[in-house]
Amino acid sequence: MKKLSNYLAAAVLGLGLYSCTQGxxxxxxxxxxxxxxxxxxxxxxxxxKQWGWLRGSDFIPSTAINQLxxxxxxxxxxxxxxxxxxxAEKIGMNSMRVYLHHKAWQQDPxxxxxxxxxxxxxxxxxxxxxxxxxxxxxxxPTYKIGKQPEPKPGIHNSGxxxxxxxxxxxxxxxxxxLETYVKDILNTFRDDKRIVLWDLYNEPxxxxxxxKSMPLVQKVFTWARQVNPSQPLSIGVWKKDLxxxxxxxxxxxxxxxxxxxxxxxxxxxxxxxxxxxxxxxxICTEYMARSRNSLFSNIMPILKAENIGAxxxxxxxxxxxxxxxxxTPLPDGSEPKLWFHDIFRPDGSVYRQAEVDSIKMLTxxx
Length: 366
What we know:
Oligomer: single chain
CATH class: Alpha Beta
Number of domains: 1
CATH superfamily: Glycosidases
Structural class: alpha/beta
Largest sheet: 8 strands, parallel
InterPro entries: GH (IPR017853), Glyco_hydro_2_cat (IPR006103)
Organism: Pedobacter psychroterrae
Radius of gyration: 19 Å
CATH architecture: Alpha-Beta Barrel
Domain Glycoside hydrolase family 2 catalytic: 181-295
GO molecular function, one term: hydrolase activity, hydrolyzing O-glycosyl compounds
Number of helices: 12
Keywords: Carbohydrate metabolism, Glycosidase, Hydrolase, Polysaccharide degradation, Xylan degradation
């Protein structure tokens, strides 16, 4: 797989206890079994056929600033989740990518799993499947249970949380907790047909970690394979320079996932590059940044034509402040001239009707 490192650097320059199976018999796994092998290419492609064209958003309700506010009992906002997923359904979206956080599980494992199950119930009522994210190397390095901070005006994702963040490198016992967490969640929902895929680690190596994230990448693949859920496992490629991580992620993922916020020419280079080293299904788990010319009008048609799953960042503008660009803060909190992410305002009105019309045309909604 050395070819992946070379090709990405060149061609992309310029890259349980809850029954949640809709009445089916709940099975459990020997979570300490030998890790299973990566799926065959044939199995991966057969699996992908059942889903049709996956399209949706990276989702957090507009009333939550981060993963803890989404999942803690006191702030688990089912009314908003239901309302906002209803808006997604109406424009033809059929899947959402949703982040978990080990700290919410650690505080209340059974309650947390119950809330995950409730989220799946709500999503399923809107004919929306789910892709869950386990770990994350983006944004704030520390976190604590309880009331979460208010958004910093005009700052993109001012309250988003890494998981496990810097604590992994400070507490030698945390790895044991993370192993128990991963195995408990995957075992509980291992046969849930509403779950598309387990995205085990979002953007490993981000926040300056680089290859420092490799040990946890390796461990989470091992833990997940020991559980051997019915859903595939993946960690998405997101930065061309992280050649060792890229190689390991692609070699060990049942399905190939990736992020791209570039324009159509750049995005197509990533598709061609990844297909040169992987014959597995492709799913783009993050795209759409208006100021970078990654748009619904020019990227979503490519993904549909190529039969690539399409998850844009952001459904409803809210406390995450992702309508503001990464590198263009507006500390006075004023409305940006151009929204970076997101489709809807919190009242359900759309940011740009032409975009929604384009989405509905592609998804077949009238």
